[in-house]
Amino acid sequence: MLLPTxxxxxxxxxxxxxxxxxxQAMWFAALLLALVLIPHAVSLYTTGVLTVMFITLIxxxxxxxTVGMAGQINVxxxxxxxxxxxxxxxxxxxxxxxxxxxxxxxxxxxxxxRCRRSG
Length: 119
Hints:
Blueprint: H1 12-15, H2 22-41, H3 44-69, H4 76-95, H5 99-102, H6 104-108, H7 113-118
């Protein structure tokens, strides 16, 4: 990862952190806030499209690490993505869960107990 000029590390623990500068922390906080608020502000279709887009981005970034940075050939990553997609679709169809009700954060959040009962 490229860091701004002048960023120095005093120990290995500070070098191992993901967020090193104040602007990085602010962008990360804005990203987390957007990830929480966007599903409530857009339609269900847009939420589904964004979900598929971010799942694809995770697969692409994984491929970038193995092929682009490490120089290794990776054939199995597509198979793992396919198995994960099939398992998610099959479990969703078996238990009859809609998208918004299948989300793990909503199940764990005590504040959304009204949403689960009404949906």
